[in-house]
Amino acid sequence: MSEILYVRGDATVPSGEGAKVVAHVCNDVGGWGRGFVRAVSERWPEPEAAYRAWYRARETNDFGLGAVQVVRVETDVWVANLIGQRGIRRRGRGTVPVRYEAIGTALAAPAPRALDLGARVHMPRIGCGLAGGTWSRVEPLISERLLRRGVHVTVYDPEEEPS
């Protein structure tokens, strides 16, 4: 089983040769505009447009926790919108929007496509920003759903700001 490659940089500028799938977590209420999705939209307009259309048609499709939408944005780059967040705000004193089970379910979907394409999956520390999750809970999901299936994964941590 391979290991996660951790790098400093921007997951919207995935490194290396060949096909790439950029995975990130979205909410289940149709909101797009804060966090990593902003960087995605600045680089590629297609994932946001596809997510919004998917949400609008949710009565007739699979939109919901654990679902995945894969959008081609370049010849060899796809973005995977993973629905792994309930709502957009913390509720009460500690209930965070992240839904680990949904992230685990969603992570399984890109694996066959990544393997067929010979693609590496690139991502920020999904579910750990505005969704409020912890990496110690997300990392094992990546290992189980992607690494064990032979999918190589690169996780990007932001470049440190100069002081």
TrEMBL record:
SMART domains: A1pp (SM00506)
Protein known as: Macro domain-containing protein
PANTHER family, alphabetized: ADP-RIBOSE GLYCOHYDROLASE OARD1 (PTHR12521:SF0), PROTEIN C6ORF130 (PTHR12521)
Domain Macro: 1-163
PROSITE patterns listed in its UniProt record: MACRO
Lineage of the species this protein comes from: Bacteria, Bacillati, Actinomycetota, Actinomycetes, Kitasatosporales
The reaction(s) this protein catalyses: an N-(ADP-alpha-D-ribosyl)-thymidine in DNA + H2O = a thymidine in DNA + ADP-D-ribose
InterPro entries: ADP-ribose_metab_enzymes, Macro_dom, Macro_dom-like
